[in-house]
Amino acid sequence: MSKKDILNSYAEKIVNRIEFVKLSCGKKQIIPTIYYVDMILFVLTSGCSWNSLENLPNLKCKGDSIRKQYNRWMEKGIFDDIHTELLNQYKDQQIFESSNDNPINEIFIDSTDILNDNGTKDMTGYGYKFKNKRAIRLHCGCDKNNIISANFTKASIHESKMTIPLLSNPWYPLGPTYHQPIYVAGDTAYLSEPIKKILKESHIHLICPYRSNMNKKNSSKYSKILKKRFIIEHTNNLLKRGFKRLNHFYVYERSVRSYMTFLKMANTCQIIKILKI
To answer: How confident is the model over 220-252, as pLDDT tens digits?
Structure first.
């Protein structure tokens, strides 16, 4: 599916959901719902602000009106419900199609810092990437199809401290069992023997490359999984380049929930691409 087809399919699902829950502001709506949805998706992909929408030719309403509709639908859980519904459908398909040649028990984790440009003050801190600037750290885990799970912390929080909370997120298709453990591949930042032991009790195997001064080596099976870590790097790149609204916390971003909703929307687009619906 092309990106245009994915966005059109997603827009149709949003409109159908809005009509299903019968959202109404009590006034006769002059501008069709699909127009608001298309403009919200334009903001997601282009990264422009709500006010800068007014620079577009033939705009049918103010940018602030589009922002209010987005906030209203976000509060009603429109985007969250669609994401949950499609994610459950994706989980069922992955479990049905899983095999030895097509494993679904491999997860890849990493973190990336999101610059806070005078936006929300919640959960911001000083990290090593942006010197003297506040940022929010996005901790991501993904499977082979770039379907993500994410948590937020201050940029000053180390990655290893978020390993267990990230893996507790129910977005992943399969839960670990004794016969089917989960293999989690991370970089050296996640290397922690105490955390490894805690996760192993839940049948989750944390795999990290050892440092050069450590007299340890990973098995051939673990080394093979570590070679797939490019998937999480590719996922972060896809998010930031394909959905530019996720690059920064802009001055008009007043809540982490708003950013998280945009992130779920981007994830929903990826699920639609995999399911081809």
So the answer is: 999 999 999 999 999 988 888 889 888 877 555
Q: How far apart are CA 193 and CA 64, in angstroms?
A: 50
Q: What are the helix (H) ranges across 47-174?
A: 63-75, 78-97, 163-167
CB proximity list for 129: less than 8 A, separation 6 or greater:
113, 135, 155
One of 3.30.1360, 3.30.420, 3.40.50, 3.30.450 is the CATH number of 102-253, namely: 3.30.420
3-state secondary structure of 149: strand
How big is the CA angle at 166 (ends 183 and 179), to the nearest 5 degrees?
30
Q: Phi and psi of 147, rounded to 5°?
A: -85, 125
Give the span between the Cα atoms of 11 and 8, in whole angstroms: 5
Residue 214's CB: how many other CB atoms inside 10 A? 10
Contact status, residue 43 vs residue 245, Cβ threshold 8 Å: yes
153: helix, strand or coil: strand
Query: Using CA atoms, how far apart are residues 34 and 14, in angstroms rounded to an integer?
Result: 9
Going by DSSP bridges, is the β-strand pair 182-185/106-116 parallel, antiparallel, or unpaired?
Answer: parallel
Q: Tokens standing for 9?
A: 């399919």
CA distance 80 to 206: 30
Q: Contact 269/10 with Cβ under 8 angstroms?
A: yes
pLDDT tens per residue, range 88-136: 899 888 877 776 667 678 899 998 888 776 656 666 777 777 777 778 8
Q: Which amino acid is at 156?
A: S
pLDDT range class, residue 256, cuts 50, 70, 90: confident
The pLDDT, as a whole number, for residue 104 is 79
The length of the chain, given as a count of residues? 277
Identify the three-state secondary structure at position 173: coil
pLDDT of residue 148: 86
